[in-house]
Design goal:
mainly alpha, membrane, transmembrane helix, transmembrane, 2TM domain-containing protein
């Protein structure tokens, strides 16, 4: 059984990863309009796929933890 502190940490990590993912969704537009391609396009693409993998991996782990807690 997980303590309340652990659940709060999971919630905090989820919010941080979600914000990182949302920023990376718009990073291409930000890089084009505001930064005038200051960040190379390849790095923007790598960051997007990294954030997508982190987000989906975290959601899968959270699902498995909740599933195990219900049993």
């Amino acid at each position: 059984m997980m303590t309340r502190k652990k659940w709060l940490q999971i919630g905090l990590y989820g919010k941080i990863i979600s914000v990182f993912f949302m920023v990376n969704i718009f990073l291409d537009v930000i890089n084009e309009k505001l930064l005038h391609y200051w960040i190379p396009v390849e790095i923007v693409a790598y960051l997007f796929w990294l954030s997508l993998g982190l987000f989906l991996g975290f959601q899968l782990c959270k699902y498995l933890v909740f599933k195990k807690e219900k049993e």
